[in-house]
Amino acid sequence: MSSIQTACVKDPKDPRTTKPHQLPIYATSSFEFESIEQGMDVFRSPSSAHIYSRFGNPTTDAVAKKIAELEAYGTGVIDPFGILCSSGMSAIATVILALLTKGDKILSQGNLYGGSTELLKLLQRYGIETIFTDLKEIDTLSALCAKDTNIKMIYLETPSNPGLDCVDLAEMAQFSRQNGLISVVDNTFCTPVIQRPFMYGIDYIIHSTTKYLNGHGNSISGLIVGQGEESRKKVWATYKLLGTNCNPWDAFLLNSGLKTLALRMERHAANAQQLAEFLVTHSQVSEVRYLGLSSHKDHALAKKQMSNFGGMLAFEVKGGFDAGLRFMNRVTIGALAPTMGDVDTLLLHPASMSHLNVDRALRLENGITDGLIRVSVGIEYIDDIINDFDQALKS
Ligand SMILES: *Cc1c(COP(=O)(O)O)cnc(C)c1O
């Protein structure tokens, strides 16, 4: 028998004889081998076994695989993979750094998530330039690709924030194939329950799992979804060196939230539709942007590629900036928080919050008007939401 000092150091034996019903949190930085032969096998194929948690961890990998399979559901994609990152931003950075190199260019849209736009601009310092353009103008895109063979990727978001503009996924995938581009879609707003870009032939899907996929606002993580072993190895090789891995605790929280994803998305969308229809009729509201309203310019496109219209909407309070502030101070059901996709209603007044330091003219140019309120409609009882908005709008 060894000394008590040595006994303290040794990890206890795993006593389990039955399988845990819930995915455990594997709080371990590394994995040990049963034998040196097993170790050799693992090191021969390091992307497929657990060695060190920066490379992969059973908790994070299980959750990543689950979401990848949701993205592949019904699309005909048989070999999806998921790589769980420390945030949505790190997923975007990882996929771009894995697939592109200095001198390569990206085509993208001007109304991406703010952090994504900033990241693409930052990457210019490292020789990866982004051309921001209108992705609906196929002729312009064709002309750009014809004269510049360095364009290698198309990066898009549909619907966009907060205007809820949509881009045609089938058209983008086809255009990408014809021009030899890699297509990447940020599917955070929809989740695979509402929209599955693989259905149209998109190559890579990004999620900020922080939002709807987790749904409870208690973890930050992001996901890269792709298909095929070659792609997986390519992305993984960069991921493990950047150290953009998610930790198992956040992955565990994400997994808990995921179980109610389909139910939640149904309720988010049903509530958003009813709230939008109420706001349209309200005397203090001048405009409502929701994809489920036939008045939205992308209603038909959304209907084509989304299974419902989602839980995000925006509306314009009559009376400009001050009216926007008054509404935000009076509303009680929603939290004033700069995130989205949680079970509770979340409100953002971009002019006084996310875009407070943006030049007003520039903000207006991007459709961020003074009285615009963005709502991530929660799953509360809809009458409670409507009644609260109504009292907050009455001046
Ligand atoms: C929040 C968000 C991101 C960034 O994700 P984080 O998890 O905050 O890093 C990227 N894209 C979209 C559409 C988002 O809403």
Annotation keywords:
single chain, 7-stranded mixed sheet, alpha/beta, 395 residues, globular, binds pyridoxal-5'-phosphate, 5-stranded mixed sheet
Order of helices and strands: HHHEHEHEHEHEHEEHHHEHEHEEHEH
What is the arithmetic mean of pLDDT? 95
> What global shape is seen?
globular
**How big a fraction of the residues is strand?**
5-15%
Low-confidence stretches: none
Our Rg estimate from Cα atoms comes to: 23 Å
Strand line-up across the major sheet: 1-7-6-5-4-2-3
Total DSSP helices = 15
Structural class: alpha/beta
Distance between the termini: 80 Å
Major sheet size, sense and barrel closure: 7 strands, mixed
Task: Give the total of beta strands.
Answer: 12
* Bound ions, cofactors and other small molecules, one mention each: pyridoxal-5'-phosphate
Helix proportion range: 25-40%
Describe the structure concisely.
With 395 residues, this protein is α/β, with parallel strands linked by helices.
Structure in words:
The protein is α/β, with parallel strands linked by helices. Helices cover 40% and strands 15% of the residues. The chain contains 15 helices and twelve strands. The strands form two sheets. It has a seven-stranded mixed sheet with strand order 1-7-6-5-4-2-3, sandwiched between helices. A five-stranded mixed sheet has the order 8-9-12-11-10. Helix 8 links the parallel strand 5 (182-186) and strand 6 (204-208). Helix 3 packs parallel to helix 10, helix 4 (88-99) crosses helix 9 and helix 13 (320-330) packs across helix 15 (382-393). The structure holds pyridoxal-5'-phosphate. Residues 87-89, 113, 115-116, 157, 186, 188-189, 208, 210-211, 220, 222 line the site of pyridoxal-5'-phosphate.
